[in-house]
Design a protein that fits this description.
Blueprint: E1 3-5, H1 7-15, H2 24-36, E2 39-42, H3 43-50, H4 55-61, E3 67-68, H5 73-93, H6 98-104, H7 108-118, E4 121-123, H8 138-145, E5 149-150, H9 152-158
Parallel strand pairs: 1-2, 1-4, 2-3, 4-5
Length: 169
Amino acid sequence: MTYIIDSNIFIEAQNTYYCLDVCPGFWDFLGQRFESGELVSIRNVYDEIAHKDDAIFDWLKARKPYFGAVSDEATQRNFADIANYVQVEYSARKTNNPNINSFLSVADPWLIAKAMSTSATLVTHEIRAGAGSFKPKIPDICDKFGVNVIRTNELLRNLQVRFIMEGAF
């Protein structure tokens, strides 16, 4: 099974529970699983994070090859289907909905499109907005297109990863 990683996985990890200096094991896990091919991401995610010169970007720079292109025919076709659905569905929910362009201008629809074309499970911290929401969210769009979506804790459980405390007591 392949897992495709959203940018918020890296950002939330660094900003909360798995910051690089406190939980290097989490980052070692990510690096090893990128190398093994179990984890992948897309160049759009890399580009979203690259605009900040911070610890996350320093970590990602060494792993840039694991952030693949979205130029393949299947991903392009899937993106077109997602974009069409979002435009039609979310315009019907709210006239002149600014959330449509916001969603389509970031990595989110490309992650879903790539997950569709590679049968990957998408890993994100986004939560469902639910029926009737004016804002497209990754899990809602994944549900529509049959893409499995999970959070970090489910990824760690699926891959049977545990972090063990070390240090002075």
